[in-house]
Amino acid sequence: MTSVPTAATSATPTTGEVPGEAAALARQGRFPTDFLWGAATASYQIEGAVAEDGRTPSIWDTFSHTPGKTENGDTGDVAVDHYHRSAEDVALMARLGLGTYRFSVSWSRVQPTGRGPAERRGLDFYRRLTDDLLARGIRPMVTLYHWDLPQELEDAGGWPERETAYRFAEYAALVGEALGDRVELFTTLNEPWCSAFLGYGSGVHAPGRTDPVDALRAAHHLNLAHGLGAQALRSSVPAGRTPKIAVSLNPSAVRARTAAPEDEDARRRIDALANRVFTGPMLHGAYPEDLLADTARLTDWSFVQDGDARTACQPLDLLGINYYAPAIVSGGRVDGPRDDGHGASAHSPWPAADDITFHQAQGERTAMGWGVDPTGLYDLLTKYAAEAPGVPLLVTENGAAYPDAPDAQGRFHDPDRIRYLHGHLSAVLDAIRDGADVRGYYLWSLLDNFEWSYGYGKRFGAVHVDYDTQVRTPRSSAHWYARAARDGVLPPADFRPEPDAG
């Protein structure tokens, strides 16, 4: 199970300037000239059309239609109707000057039963979307899995079952065959921690199960799926094409509340559960020994077969980092709700860690209740630059939800989000200055959307969406971001667009 670590590296950079030149520009407050300025979305959060053109239910369809699972009983049935408005949305991206767009493919739209042949109509939608992006000079980045497992696979056991990893590889091959002639950048999984530990541990995400051993089993099979999926992508794309493979993790910037030994040990244990459970196999071909010891009272990890961790350790061309807020922990249990920022549940997403307490940082918070701390992003970028030398980094998600309302002219000015973006992109610049090979940044999110169990009550979009009319209105932050992308320099944090900005 714990094979000798093997570093995963990329032989050739995918984009961007050599790190020394990038660092020199960063010291001048400038981003590399070919830095990727993008935005990201996820299929179930924006597409709607859940029963059209052969699509079948995913676990999020089932979960959101289960009473009490989402705020106000909201579902993604319509979402922001991107399935019918994709051309409009691509035109909006072009007006905002985006150079790249990260979107996810709905597995149950492409392979309705989670096995067998592809649904042509589903693939055709993603072909059209990709072609529209390329025609506008926008580089597509395709995420294969952003949490919407076909319900039939969940009925067969879901991610705690090994077979699901093999079904994912089959699905990855279908997408590679269909889009590999026009897409270069692929992400296998988005935030597998959430899929495993929120979906099968705390139950606040689909499918809503609450078994800590199943959560660990799911984490392993997601690692295996990543490796098998990367292999399938590389073997399935058309001859002469070389896909660039990434995975988008949401590593936690874990900090001990004090220097006390019990707090430092809490930091180590949560680092293992939040981060090294994935980076161990994916980057080094082995699970951390301390993770296995910490969770030994729950499982002997016999679901890990010989060679699995090596399979998970496929060469990465890019490592995606999603970041929102740090985690502050201490040893010892404190009575009251768990304040880890991952939703309210009587069940913990942290197996064998019930004696650890989570604390939120003091100071400004977003509408999600998350602390605003750009230093956590800097810490993660420099950490993984050192841990995986030779693997370029992407910030594949970063953003914030804030409440806002239109002014008398119907404009949406969001100074809090602008300050948030200014602070976090400044942290990216600092990381590049200090030697991290960061190739791009994807704002979460392009559009307001269905925010999982929070329904439509939390708005992350640079573009406001009126959910009744589906009218899209760029907020001030969208114009701020467009100027940053155009100039390669961050506009001031107190930026306000001209009144006639459209």
TrEMBL record:
<keyword id="KW-0624">Polysaccharide degradation</keyword>
<feature type="region of interest" description="Disordered">
    <location>
        <begin position="1"/>
        <end position="20"/>
    </location>
</feature>
<feature type="binding site">
    <location>
        <position position="444"/>
    </location>
    <ligand>
        <name>substrate</name>
    </ligand>
</feature>
<dbReference type="GO" id="GO:0008422">
    <property type="term" value="F:beta-glucosidase activity"/>
</dbReference>
<dbReference type="InterPro" id="IPR033132">
    <property type="entry name" value="GH_1_N_CS"/>
</dbReference>
<keyword id="KW-0136">Cellulose degradation</keyword>
<dbReference type="GO" id="GO:0030245">
    <property type="term" value="P:cellulose catabolic process"/>
</dbReference>
<dbReference type="InterPro" id="IPR017736">
    <property type="entry name" value="Glyco_hydro_1_beta-glucosidase"/>
</dbReference>
<keyword id="KW-0119">Carbohydrate metabolism</keyword>
<protein>
    <recommendedName>
        <fullName>Beta-glucosidase</fullName>
        <ecNumber>3.2.1.21</ecNumber>
    </recommendedName>
</protein>
<feature type="active site" description="Proton donor">
    <location>
        <position position="191"/>
    </location>
</feature>
<dbReference type="Pfam" id="PF00232">
    <property type="entry name" value="Glyco_hydro_1"/>
</dbReference>
<feature type="compositionally biased region" description="Low complexity">
    <location>
        <begin position="1"/>
        <end position="15"/>
    </location>
</feature>
<keyword id="KW-0326">Glycosidase</keyword>
<dbReference type="InterPro" id="IPR017853">
    <property type="entry name" value="GH"/>
</dbReference>
<feature type="binding site">
    <location>
        <position position="190"/>
    </location>
    <ligand>
        <name>substrate</name>
    </ligand>
</feature>
<dbReference type="InterPro" id="IPR018120">
    <property type="entry name" value="Glyco_hydro_1_AS"/>
</dbReference>
<feature type="active site" description="Nucleophile">
    <location>
        <position position="397"/>
    </location>
</feature>
<feature type="binding site">
    <location>
        <position position="146"/>
    </location>
    <ligand>
        <name>substrate</name>
    </ligand>
</feature>
<keyword id="KW-0378">Hydrolase</keyword>
<comment type="similarity">
    <text>Belongs to the glycosyl hydrolase 1 family.</text>
</comment>
<dbReference type="InterPro" id="IPR001360">
    <property type="entry name" value="Glyco_hydro_1"/>
</dbReference>
<feature type="binding site">
    <location>
        <begin position="451"/>
        <end position="452"/>
    </location>
    <ligand>
        <name>substrate</name>
    </ligand>
</feature>
<feature type="binding site">
    <location>
        <position position="324"/>
    </location>
    <ligand>
        <name>substrate</name>
    </ligand>
</feature>
<dbReference type="GO" id="GO:0005829">
    <property type="term" value="C:cytosol"/>
</dbReference>
<feature type="binding site">
    <location>
        <position position="45"/>
    </location>
    <ligand>
        <name>substrate</name>
    </ligand>
</feature>
